[in-house]
């Protein structure tokens, strides 16, 4: 059964399409999960199976999150990890994360996704790299299916424990052969290469300081055999650079170049300390960057040279990063922080509001190697968000409703449509009971942290 959905009378439809059209009094006509028409309300069909009146709303493509660790929602604001830099922060939290269970992965993933969906995100990547007590990537994929979010699930891993010079405790690392075997299993079970896919799988050893050179190399071979994405953390802070130079005798950019971890199918989180050679390498090879400004500020990692990367033609997307180093999963707010942080580092012209939104939509889509999401046009997936311009945060900001999303305090979305399905309707999630979800999440968080 084909069904149609019409979003009509929007104050503004910001398409982010190739002409960067911003249509006042706009409408969008959707058939099943695909956009069929975008234009002036008067020029589009007036009826559909379902019609949503978007009067006083600004409508735009759903934001795309390129880096997260959703399980960390259980360990936000843990007192001992509040004021540390990356390595100390990790060493404080690893033992707590060792108590994760499959239910905790499922519930925290749903919780993180609920927060993302309400904040304007319709597609998210997640990087799960810790698998104690029978946890599997299946637990988070099931959560995405329940809540109705488009999902890039990355099979993370750690294989070098403390006794071998790595950062994680020995009991939390996995055997490398087992990692590769399970990664192959989840690709074969869940990865959908088709256009408009709701589930894709990526191969994602955690970081150069928690896996071996051999695993990095084998992971790349496996990903290319199956034509799936490759993801890891890179050049996050000064200690990360020092580790790379001491352990491998190379900068992070030289290390990934040496291992074949560059190309259109690869994206690296952070890259705060990526040097000019790295920027040139990433630009030349089409390698993507997941920029995570809140986490970089929270852990005092530094200011990523995003202006420089964009000018050099590097693919840059936005990520909220794990919930224990942000500790907010608000995508529109993250785009705001991206703009503000570039200005702190490089001046008031370093990033505009529209550039921040472009990074969070088209930029993120290119980083995830997708050509079916990130802008509104016929043939694109129907992933669409709408904010009510009558919210208090926008009062007085309607001179430029689109820029107001970034300059002002943005509330939760009033509507979110994912793959043609209304997942947030008048500000409420339609797929899960948010009250029950948060209450179970908080019970599990207490059990995990207090033992
Ligand atoms: Zn991360």
UniProtKB/TrEMBL annotation:
Keyword match Metal-binding: yes
SUPFAM superfamilies noted in UniProt: Composite domain of metallo-dependent hydrolases (SSF51338), Metallo-dependent hydrolases (SSF51556)
Keywords noted in UniProt: Hydrolase, Metal-binding, Zinc
Residues in coiled coil: none
Domain Amidohydrolase-related: 58-423
GO molecular function terms attached to this record: deaminase activity; hydrolase activity, acting on carbon-nitrogen (but not peptide) bonds, in cyclic amidines; metal ion binding
Family to which this protein belongs: Belongs to the metallo-dependent hydrolases superfamily. ATZ/TRZ family.
Protein name (record): 8-oxoguanine deaminase
Annotated source species: Leucothrix arctica
Lineage: Bacteria, Pseudomonadati, Pseudomonadota, Gammaproteobacteria, Thiotrichales
